Amino acid sequence: MESTPTPHNGAHIGDIAKTVLMPGDPLRAKYIADHYLEDVHLFNEVRNMLGYTGTYQGHPVSVMGGGMGMPSIGIYSYELYEFYGVESIIRVGSAGGIDPSVHVRDVVAGMGACTDSNFAAQYRLPGTFAPIASYDLLERAVAAGRAQGIEVKVGNVLSSDHFYQDDPNATATWQKMGVLAVEMEAAALYMNAARAGKKALCLLTVSDLPLTGESLPADERQSSFTQMMEIALSLALPA
């Protein structure tokens, strides 16, 4: 195998830690590296999908952008699991709150990920696959939040292929099934992890409520996302 085994990632074998935090925005990956990691080096800038490895409280951790939507995170997470020996990927992203119990600034952990995507068709299963998080990561994230005085709301999220939905009532229909929030990547990440026999968790900060129009002001988003980032970073430490 070549030392850089994929055209989408400039990392060499050994450049990436066993645990990777994966925001959608590569600039958020840079923010995490700049503000939380020590001894940082840039391992990828192919397509400007920035990736960094450093240490957090003395333990190796990597952070890399995953892009928008399931095709994008599907590529990057697959390659991390299959080509770079990554064991755990924690998505850290934003979401729109659906359930009435969810408010802006809340931190949500996706225990499961409903989806309107056809991503699972590739597996040719004789039924419907239910993408779920790795329980140990989920349990540790809830405990880490509690230790920081943060309630992590746990439940189903919706991973949608559509940011601009032609049916104006589509998102609201998921509310009756108790879905907490909508985002665009968790289901593909969970399926890739299941197929590879690896671990995954999706942590989300609620940035808006699409059914009411409420939205978190831009200048407050970073401080709210910080809580989610710190919970995710704790998962890179020994249990």
TrEMBL record:
Has the keyword Nucleus been applied to this entry?
Answer: no
> A single GO BP annotation from the record?
uridine catabolic process
What is the E.C. number? 2.4.2.3
Record-level GO cellular component terms = cytosol
Report the InterPro entries cross-referenced here: DeoD-type, Nucleoside_phosphorylase_CS, Nucleoside_phosphorylase_d, Nucleoside_phosphorylase_sf
- Kindly give the Pfam families that the UniProt entry links to this protein: PNP_UDP_1
Q: Tell me a Gene Ontology molecular-function term this record carries.
A: uridine phosphorylase activity
Q: Does the keyword Calcium apply?
A: no
This protein's source sits in the domain of life called: Bacteria
> What keyword terms does UniProt attach to this protein?
Glycosyltransferase, Transferase
Q: Where is the Nucleoside phosphorylase domain?
A: 19-228
Catalyses which reaction(s): uridine + phosphate = alpha-D-ribose 1-phosphate + uracil
Q: Which family does it belong to?
A: Belongs to the PNP/UDP phosphorylase family.
Name this protein carries in UniProt: Uridine phosphorylase
Q: Which organism is it from?
A: Collinsella stercoris DSM 13279
Q: What is the lineage of its organism?
A: Bacteria, Bacillati, Actinomycetota, Coriobacteriia, Coriobacteriales
